[in-house]
Each structure stands twice: as C-alpha cells, then as structure tokens.
Amino acid sequence: MDQMDQMDQKKTIMHIEDNFDNRMLIRRLLQSDGYDVLEAENATNALKILQTTRPDLILMDINMPDIDGYTLTNYLKNQETTANIPILAITANVMRGDREKTFAAGCDGYIEKPIDIDDFLERIAWYTRRAD
Fold first, then answer.
1. pTM value?
2. Crossing angle of helices 69-77 and 43-50, rounded to 10°
3. C-beta separation of 88 from 58 below 8 A
C-alpha cells in the first residue's frame, strides 16, 4: 500500500467509556478530525465489539463499573487478536502512582482528564501513525 492509499484510509478508534458526555465529546473531536469511532459504554460491550472488529487504537477509561480499565487492558494485551492494538488510558486518576499503574496494566499511553483538545488530537495522530 503506498503512502497516498494510507492517507485515504480512515483510522478506526474504539472509545471505551461509561460516561455518555465524555463519549460524546471524544466522538465529536475524533470525527471532526476524520476518524471512524466505535463506542463501548463498558468492558463487556467492548469485548463483544472486539470479537468482530479490529480498531487501530483503543481509548480506555480506567474507572468503569463492570470491569475496570486496568483489568480490561491487561486482558486485551494478553489476547493474540488484540495484543498489538495500542491502548491509551484516558483517566481522571492523576495521583502519584496512577500513571505507572496504567503502564503496568499494559497501556501504551496516558491522557489526563480533563483533556487538552489540541494535545489530545496530536497524540491520537501520533499513535495512529505509529500503528501503520
């Protein structure tokens, strides 16, 4: 595939987040930047979607009601079909040690809430290019 074909190919990003308002904000940002967006409101729903779809990047909320983002990330990184998908934690967990805990679970990156929109989109672009 040449570089022009890669540029024309839309990247798909899965956002796993239990808060509707947060999902709506991220969806609007990503779609306005040209990404296709898959959404899951919890880990159980995300696992169902991942049975049939391979996103280019996963945005992972850490604090979810059914299975937390640490556990889900660790699980996905240990599955052959999802191990190579980059996962970015998007979290309000910003206390000492929280960042390290996300990396220990297998996350490839860490974005603090509330997000900085410009920085957020730059990081998304970097990780989706890296996935090529």
1. 0.91
2. 20
3. yes
- Alpha-carbon dihedral sign for residues 66, 95, 115, 31: negative
Q: What is the pLDDT along the chain (132 residues), one digit of tens a residue?
A: 444 444 557 999 999 999 999 999 999 999 999 999 999 999 999 999 999 999 999 999 999 989 999 999 999 999 999 999 999 999 887 788 888 999 999 999 999 989 999 999 999 999 998 766
| Cα distance between residue 52 and residue 38, in whole Å | 12
Q: In order of start, what are the domains of the chain with their CATH numbers?
A: 11-130 (3.40.50.2300)
Question: Distance from first CA to last CA of the chain, Å, rounded?
Answer: 11
- As a whole number of angstroms, the distance between CA 18 and CA 75 comes to 18
Cα–Cα distance measured from residue 98 to residue 101, given in angstroms and rounded to the nearest whole number:
5
Describe the crossing of helices 117-130 and 20-32 by its angle, rounded to 10 degrees: 70
CA–CA separation, 27 and 22 (whole Å): 8
